[in-house]
Amino acid sequence: MFTFSLQRKLPYKKMLIVTGILLAFVLVVMVGQTARTMQGTGWLPITPAPVDVPYWSGLRFGVFPTWETLGAQVVAFAFVVGSYVIAQEVKVKRPRRRAREAGASAPDREHATV
What we know:
The protein is mainly alpha-helical. The protein has one domain. It contains four helices and no strands. α2 crosses α3 (about 55-60) and α2 (about 10-40) runs antiparallel to α4 (about 65-114). The longest helix is centred in the C-terminal third of the chain and has 47 residues, at about 65-114.
């Protein structure tokens, strides 16, 4: 109601980008916590990594010094970034590249038919 009363235009694209970044952060934290829980139940092995992280980083950010938790977080983050890159390629870059190629080859067709 506040936005409508002021009749302001919201920066939707920026808001969606920030939301996506926050969701990626939440995903990485949740994957770390879940991997640690699975280690506690014995479903995943516990292999210590040569990384010294403070205790609070595990509580707040799901970062634990084991290869399994760190690896799961890296894979989750790579999945999110990779899906974004692929979506940009399919929806933005590929159509632009095809339009450029079609525009560049159009004059060549005219000269070939004349």
